[in-house]
Write the structure tokens for this entry.
Amino acid sequence: MSLLLLARHGNTFGPGDKIVWVGAKEDLPLVKSGEAQAALLGESLRERSLAPATLVAGPLKRTRRAAEIIKAITASDAPINIDKRLTEIDYGLWGGKTDEEITAEFGPDAVANWRDHHQRPEKAGWKPDPDTLKANALGVLADMASSESPAMVITSNGILRYFHTALGFAGDAKVKTGHVCAARREGEAWRPLFWNQAPDQLPELP
């Protein structure tokens, strides 16, 4: 059985910063608290002797840096493989805008429709299309099925929503910054273990 860990990068905003939608075009680095979140995840994995044997990250600064921190703390020998399929969604006209600005332009339900119901807005210029994002997630999972275990994928919240579906999880697909998810490969299928867990509250892995 192979273990797959999926993590969201840490914070890209500090105290007092304007909180906006950050997609593929908003290539922000981790702030101090975001680096601390990655370090906490790395320490939690080290305590459980879970140094990634396969480590894959999206190409944006925030996911690359999270992978570097986790690799260093866990003393993983795995190279960091950068996979463009893990690039966050391009949020088009929403990118760089606050929830309030989006609500004013796209209506009162637009943000909640995505966050709570996984419904993309119309005429907002998001890309790639949902079929491509689904195919990307399935392609990465196919690669992870034959990779050395434990395997770790570091990406962003929008992309993780497609892994949530592909892995057969139920419930809320959101992943908080610095949080982690897990599944096991059993035969030809993935078995969901947990979703959106804080690094310092990880359950025992069966």
